[in-house]
Fold DUF327 domain-containing protein.
Amino acid sequence: MKITDKNGVRDLRKGAQSTPAKKDGTGLFSLFSSELKTKQHEINNYNQDVTELRASLDAVGQALEQEPTIQNFKKFRELLSKLAKQVSSEAYRLEKVGGTPMNPRYYEIITVIDKEADKLYELVVKEQKDRMAITASVIGIKGLVVDLLT
């Protein structure tokens, strides 16, 4: 393959400057700013969703304390699992290392990406510890009833 246009290479070597990105909404500057705005909007939505989940979890947890019914238990369990999934998807990264055809053993490395989300999740779990004990006892009673029926 023969390259006939060598002018571009000479210009680069001489230090010729290319046109800089314009700040009027075109070029790389606008691409970066639009991407930054998109990420900022996603972060704001994530924070708002977690705050709403936490508030609804508190409300359902109080309802479970006042009336430990199966419906309240299911709502509490559903919200707690939803919060755990959302926080863990953003706060942690799971990486598998190893595993060859000869040695299929592998190791999993969990890395904390977002420490604030991790702290928030720990705080929510600590606050909901009593309510989770109630739900655990409900599960235990439910299991005993199933054992008695079989």
